[in-house]
From TrEMBL:
<protein>
    <submittedName>
        <fullName>Uncharacterized protein</fullName>
    </submittedName>
</protein>
<keyword id="KW-0479">Metal-binding</keyword>
<keyword id="KW-0539">Nucleus</keyword>
<keyword id="KW-0862">Zinc</keyword>
<feature type="compositionally biased region" description="Acidic residues">
    <location>
        <begin position="114"/>
        <end position="124"/>
    </location>
</feature>
<keyword id="KW-0863">Zinc-finger</keyword>
<feature type="region of interest" description="Disordered">
    <location>
        <begin position="96"/>
        <end position="145"/>
    </location>
</feature>
<feature type="compositionally biased region" description="Acidic residues">
    <location>
        <begin position="131"/>
        <end position="145"/>
    </location>
</feature>
<dbReference type="GO" id="GO:0008270">
    <property type="term" value="F:zinc ion binding"/>
</dbReference>
<dbReference type="GO" id="GO:0005634">
    <property type="term" value="C:nucleus"/>
</dbReference>
<dbReference type="InterPro" id="IPR052035">
    <property type="entry name" value="ZnF_BED_domain_contain"/>
</dbReference>
Length: 145
């Protein structure tokens, strides 16, 4: 069912017991073909490590990888827990950095393409010069006879 979804929102929350046991819940929200709001629980994970931003980021990335919806997530919604917000901000920065790297590569490819066209222009003028030189040679040989 989620394969047909074009985009949606991921929501997540972290519940922590008084003993510091953590449960990460993740839902995917989308609008179906009948324009009705749908939601699916896509993951419930135990978080048996420190609940800092780096650890939560790792868990969220793993869930996104497991559910195979990374290209379909338009927004991520969460409560205001500082560690969850930190994890999401770190993920956002990585995504923006990756996009910038892709833009830089695209610019380099375009520049190479432009340079290649300039070289093609140079070779055409070289061919013209070569033809002119051959023409001059023929005239010189005719005069010599």
């Amino acid at each position: 069912e989620l394969n047909d979804v074009t985009s949606g929102t991921l929501s997540l929350d972290l519940w922590t017991s008084h003993r510091k046991d953590g449960i990460l819940g993740v839902k995917f929200h989308f609008i179906d073909d009948n324009f009705e709001i749908q939601q699916r629980t896509v993951a419930i994970r135990e978080v048996n490590e420190n609940h800092d931003g780096a650890i939560l980021k790792k868990y969220v990335e793993k869930v996104i990888e497991d559910i195979g919806l990374s290209e379909k997530i338009s927004f991520v919604v969460t409560g205001s827990l500082a560690n969850v917000v930190k994890a999401l901000k770190d993920m956002q920065k990585e995504i923006e950095d990756a996009k910038q790297d892709n833009d830089d590569v695209s610019e380099d490819v375009m520049q190479l393409s432009d340079d290649s066209e300039d070289e093609d222009d140079d070779s055409e003028s070289t061919n013209v010069d070569t033809e002119s030189a051959e023409s001059d040679e023929s005239e010189f040989e005719a005069e010599a006879e």
